[in-house]
Specification:
This protein is an alpha+beta fold. Helices cover 25% and strands 43% of the residues. Strand 6 and strand 7 form a beta hairpin. The relative contact order is 0.25.
Amino acid sequence: MERVKIEVEYLLRASPALLYQFFTTPSALVRWFCDGVDIQGDGIYTFEWSGYEEVAQLTEDIEEELVHFNWLEDDREGEYLEFKISISPVTGETILTITDFCDEDEVDQQRELWETQIKSLKKETGSGG
């Protein structure tokens, strides 16, 4: 099955500084993204979901702007997860753009998963949802 890149974009009423913490801090990540996370040296993050683990390396980290993880599993070579934070020049709202990968027949499910995750993120950051 071919893997495809997807991008999803959300408007949030939360500051870039607050959102950044929710993408890089274990105690905040477990509130909306995963069941557990362990950080080793060299920016190696081990994320856990229902007993299943995935390992990624934090390769780009621009405070309040960009968090980029490269997945380290052999079957995910070249794949990454990216959170890009910007401000709408029109509304002043925070724009979150997420780049992720999935099987080509799972695009709709992956988008639905992100919808659910972002609802949790909005609730945890106090930006509605």
